[in-house]
Fold this sequence. Notes:
Elements: H1 2-14, H2 18-56, H3 60-69, H4 75-103, H5 105-116, H6 128-149, H7 156-180, H8 186-210, H9 212-223, H10 228-264, H11 281-292
Helix pairs in contact: 1-10, 2-4, 2-10, 4-7, 4-9, 4-10, 5-10, 6-7, 7-8, 7-10, 8-10, 9-10
Amino acid sequence: MKLLIDSFWRAGAYCLHPRVIGLSLLPLVLMVALSWLLGYLYWDDAIALVRTGLDASSWLDVVWRWLEGVGLPDLKAVVAPLVVIFLITPVVVVVCLVLVSWLMTPALARMVAQRRFSGLELKHGGSLLAGLGWTLWSVLLALGALLITLPMWLVPPLAMLLPALIWGWLTYRIMTFDVLAEFASTSERQTLLSRHRLSLLGMGVITGMMGAAPSLVWASGALFVAAFVILVPLAIWIYTLVFAFASLWFAHYALSALQDMRLEAPQAYDGEIFPEQPVSPHADARLSVGVSQGLSSTPKTDVTDVDPRRGS
Length: 312
């Protein structure tokens, strides 16, 4: 718990660093440009498609008549944009997370290492191709979980809990791999994940809950159409900063845990299951005699720690 809290406040302090803010601008520019392009090409068609589906639903006629009866006839026009935003929000979150993990996380991990863990050895246990495969597989699993659990989102408590758990699991998977890819070996990464799985998953879930704030800003853009052009980039930038904070939090936590793990057992995680076993003094003495006589090896019967039993 101490390491968790210490890493949290350090990550928050690092978010104010000009370099972190500068790094967040590149994913922001890419996401805003992509959002505007897709909105320009498909927004009106998507709204029209959703409205057609809503108008074709017979049971929604009761809802529309009730809204007209209570004096809210214009609310029907807002439902279609909200449905479209509800559907594209997971895609925006995933794309933003992937962009931050590729464009920011390695640089932020190196910054944390230079400032706090300058003597940490680089073992390059995760290649670029392996990281790409890990990210794509994790994203597919997360999107599959979203589709499977979508009917459960109609239950109010689960509508808040399930997305946070899914985004938290995805953030934990991607951020941990990207932070440790350059610094830890494969065996070290697996050992660290096994030891700290619950803490790392909890960090991801907390980050996923923090991601609910930009979703509110994003959704309000549908209610206030005049401010939509301003609110959408603002929401995307908040997403970027949230995932940048997650990168720093995972970097501080994982690199500190990696350093502690190496200090407690310097040889145990360097590709060896067990440290090198000491040589018996008796065997070492007999081997020394064999070497002094010019032999490449002593006879097997001479190299033993145990004296033969008398009478055997």
